[in-house]
Hints:
- The complex is a heterodimer.
- Chain A is of the alpha+beta class.
- Among the domains of chain A are: 8-55, no CATH class; 127-234, Immunoglobulin-like (Sandwich), CATH 2.60.40.
- Helix content of chain A is 30%, strand content 24%.
- In chain A, helix 3 crosses helix 4 (39-52).
- Chain A is flat.
- In chain B, 70% of the residues lie in helices and 0% in strands.
- Chain B has 7 helices and no strands.
- Chains A and B meet through helix 2, helix 4, helix 5, helix 6 and helix 7 of A and helix 1, helix 2, helix 3, helix 4 and helix 5 of B.
Amino acid sequence: MKTEPDNCRDWRHLLGAYALGDLPDEEQVALEAHLEGCAECRAEAESLDSVARLLPLADPGRFTQPAPRPSPELGKLITAAIGREQRLGRRRRRRRFGLALGGAAAATAALLAILVLPGGGAGQPEQHVDFASLPAGITIGATLEPHAYGTEIRMYVKGIRSGTLCRVYLRGPHGERVPAGTFRYRWGDDSTAVLSSALDLSRTRAIGVRAGNRTFVAPVDVTGASADHQSNQEDVT
Amino acid sequence: MQPGALKRERDVREAYAAHSGELYGFAVRSLGDPGLAEEAVQETFVRAWRAGERFDPQIGSLRTWLFAILRNVVIDLGRARAARPGVAEGGIEPSVEPLEQALLSWQVEEAMRRIGEDHRRVLVETHYRGRPYAEVAAELGVPEGTVKSRVYYGLRALRVVLEEMGYED
Lengths: 237, 169
């Protein structure tokens, strides 16, 4: 890269790393000075920022695998099913699974069902998790408490860049991620973020926090058998 | 496709050829069970055929309409499965996200699949794995500026693909 980019093309090549929060401070300051005076680059930066904000929704463990494909017979099964209905002359207006509830109402009902069902983890003692082997100056800890709805997480973070958005999740027994919410770390704020996840503590195998572009993961020992496994790692899934 | 055109079996076959892959991908993502996902796709096309005369391309694309039907089918199947605990045991863990977020997550993952390998790789290494750009550049045998450039063009490509898939910010 040129040390002093002198036109928009050079600046624009930095906009991806800028949108992801990966530019070194010096480059970021210089780029922001350019953006102040260049409406086109500013619009491009905002557009890329909206895309960058979607990235945490995607799981690289899924998209680095080929897309799943239905079996070759499915198309024939569908035309056969339609053919049967045609032959029988039964244009059923009533939907097979009963759609008394609309989509949004059904989702709400499902959520309410989850909230009122007794959880499998309630009654367990709370767990304290230390994130070991963190970079110098960074401290992360969490206390996980079982509830009927899932797990309450009280998270303490210190030493990362002020303003960093932290996304917290729990990992279940099959490696699945269950979101637990987000919070923004502010320098000098020693308070504890209180979050919650639908995953029962008894099924929780690890807790992860994505802070900026780094992810820290700590195992959750719900059985008392893996104390020697407690280690921190970059999450590469 | 004209309004009501999905009434014919041949049109269903054409719609299936064009959209079944995407619909199935989202169904698997949401339900976590390939067999149940096929059931969902089948039910989607049968419902689409039953209601074919109500489809109007002036209102929205066939793809959007099919996804709207699939969304309802997934909700219904999810509810049916919730009433039969243990059905999904041993299979792929179903998505625990709200359905709208699951759809957006699937769109982003599908878009990541469709961008170029060079672009996808730098985004995976730098963003998802949090590796320093210099380290990734050394591994790829390119200047660090090239990695930054690929990140930029990768995000642009992702934006284009998402827009093609109907995503609106």
